[in-house]
Amino acid sequence: MRRTGFGLRAALLASALALAAAAPARAADDGEVKDFLLDNGMEVVVIPDHRAPIVTHMVWYKIGSADEPPGKSGIAHFFEHLMFKATANHAAGEFDRAVSEIGGSNNAFTSYDYTAFHETVPPSALEQMMGFEADRMRNLILTDDVIKTERDVILEERRSRIDSNPQAVLDEEVDATLWQNQPYRIPVIGWMQEMEQLNRPDAKAFYDAYYRPNNAVLVVVGDVDPNAVKAMAERTYGKVARGPDLRPRIRPVEPEQNTKRTVTLTDARVSVPSFSTQWVVPSYHTAKPGEAEALDLLAEILGGDNRSRLYQQLVVKQGIASEAGAYFQGTMLDATNFTVYGAPRGDAKLVDIEAAVDAEIARIVKEGVSDDELERAKTRYVRSMIFARDKQDDMANMYGSTLATGGNVKDVQEWPDRIRKVTADEVKAAAARYLVLDRSTSGYLLPQQQAGN
Amino acid sequence: MRRTGFGLRAALLASALALAAAAPARAADDGEVKDFLLDNGMEVVVIPDHRAPIVTHMVWYKIGSADEPPGKSGIAHFFEHLMFKATANHAAGEFDRAVSEIGGSNNAFTSYDYTAFHETVPPSALEQMMGFEADRMRNLILTDDVIKTERDVILEERRSRIDSNPQAVLDEEVDATLWQNQPYRIPVIGWMQEMEQLNRPDAKAFYDAYYRPNNAVLVVVGDVDPNAVKAMAERTYGKVARGPDLRPRIRPVEPEQNTKRTVTLTDARVSVPSFSTQWVVPSYHTAKPGEAEALDLLAEILGGDNRSRLYQQLVVKQGIASEAGAYFQGTMLDATNFTVYGAPRGDAKLVDIEAAVDAEIARIVKEGVSDDELERAKTRYVRSMIFARDKQDDMANMYGSTLATGGNVKDVQEWPDRIRKVTADEVKAAAARYLVLDRSTSGYLLPQQQAGN
Lengths: 453, 453
Prior knowledge:
Two copies of one chain form a homodimer.
Chain A lengths: L10 H9 L14 E4 L5 E6 L6 E7 L13 H8 L11 H8 L3 E6 L4 E7 L4 H13 L5 H20 L2 H13 L13 H4 L4 H11 L5 E7 L3 H10 L24 E8 L6 E8 L9 H13 L5 H9 L3 E8 L7 E9 L5 H18 L3 H18 L3 H12 L5 H13 L2 H11 L6 E7 L6
Parallel strand pairs in A: 2-6, 7-11
Antiparallel strand pairs in A: 1-2, 3-5, 3-6, 4-5, 8-10, 8-11, 9-10
Helix pairs in contact in A: 1-14, 2-5, 2-8, 10-16, 11-12, 12-16, 13-15
């Protein structure tokens, strides 16, 4: 099934930027972001982009797997699926068909902090899309039959995407070991034994609590006039009644980690071993000013791409690794993770890869980064933001994920300036403060050992 | 402060039995258990024991740390403390003084599944104790001042008992690594950052929900007449209004473990290294018939005391360990843990101790146990139950912990028979099914390494 975008995290931002094509940025009124609230509390962000006659329409709900009640894991992602079922006004599949008929595309995804639905269509179809989205925000028909059928779908999704994939099984248990209190320890798709029990009352309660205009952010990027979008939004979403006020999203937070933890999965289906090490670090939403930006640059310099230290040292110079890198998942509501990873090439041993990665971490902690490599990292980062403007869905994802995790339009717009201000000392301080090996969590994926090894 | 019995788990039963003196069991009407319900739903168990003019009076509330709402860890233990504060009828300390003045003793403890309050006094004071307990079940005065003062006490308790103790810090993170979904991963005393936020509305909500006669079990063991106890209970506890029905205690359960996990704490205060390995196993409440009994006997044979395999092999024969053993925490509401542990003696290395423990596990998994050692283990176990009758508080703890974790009086009484029925094949099957090293969680407590080591 197409709509299987769980587990996206806010890697969205990072990966979207990384993947953006290297085209020049456009000027004109393009990119002049308008944001406003509808009377029912729905937030709207419009980013005009007139280069092509298309528009990307996304609705972000500020509800993700980390908001689920205890024992109901998977309900957020399950609900993403249910949103494609029949409503009081449209049969199941009617929305999808309408999109296909006009040559558009649509999908949805669920993450820890949000659930989003999106369509890319000609501008003439925008109001129709809004009508469909506004309709399913409140008018779903949740019968026991619908629940049972779609529950079978998510159970099968879990079997095929997680349980039959050793890396995914390992990742789940690494996450649950890294996070001992914060709900990011629970997989977005849910634990099987809880998914099996999800029922109609659970779904109804979830829908009524969270699928409300005052819990949603509409992001429209494309060949549109903001005033026209506003009028359309008022005619469609504006008719949906405001829901009860939602409680602040205050979740259990992580206690200080005092230990080195490891999680090892040995499986006959694994051919090449690999490892990752992660640390709990602040996100853009929880960090002190400048700290998340420093972590972004630290990840970029240490292991962001093939110009990074890890890649150059392990893959290029020593030639022992098939891959080595680092990433920081900054766009999260709560504390997040900073990760390094690697896998051996040829006869190299995993233990040597890990030692080489650890050595690079020790070096950056001890010696920091040079002004020159910091400048180059900033340039790459800031340029990627500019490049992102070239892709409608990257822009929509940047704004949507930021607004759904406690940020605002200004946070997105000022981000390049904040990146530019980070100093080498701040990057070094972030490395020294967070990348402590005695307080980390490592995952190892190992082939089944031969007898006698 | 005296009342600091958190973290007890239901090791109560095992340890109580292990510690019971080897005195002969008494006959007569002693031990004839009566149990009944008061009209308000309070369960009462009376165990007459006329050998000495004392009585042990315990009230068990079916509320423990594993029932706490997300983000409110520590509230159950905090509430145990608050129960010693002023009520509408008695000043703070009055209950304690009354016990002291008659030469009695009293205390309380909180575990994952229950919170218990107990007094040991002359029988003439029993009704007075009931009066005090019934009073504080509903009449506590919870002011902001009381909350603040006692919160400082539990915070200090956490600092002194956990945070300044490397073994306790390690144990917390091992628990949170072993349990990735089930609430036993949360420490009974609570996470510091959540304890600091506990407030009067939290306490009030907790009190109103759980401190009710229909959520309590009264256990009275001693020189009493059951009919007289019943009349007293009706005059005291019977006056407390029944509370709203409580929801079934259905908690998130643990997903299947697919990995080997380790948690390592390195600390300068550690002189002798040690390790433990644990597995998730069923408890008496969740197991199939006979399986928890088999696990009890497996723990006894493998590492229950100095006649066990681990002790004989590692401490006596090889002389490499200062300690080595195993235990099973059977009296829990949800799935529980089976643990092996060891520490080196002299120049022996921790890695060798662990290998020797693993070898004993592999042997019992592969070869099972002999009929002879099974018989001896059963005899020790069943005899310990008989010995327990000799200690009032052991008896009270056995009944109270069983009744507070979903069992009944018959479960306690028939336990020796169920132990006698376990076969060697069942013990072997339990070992083979659960003691899989690739799916275990180990904790390592290590001294700070010397430079150059």
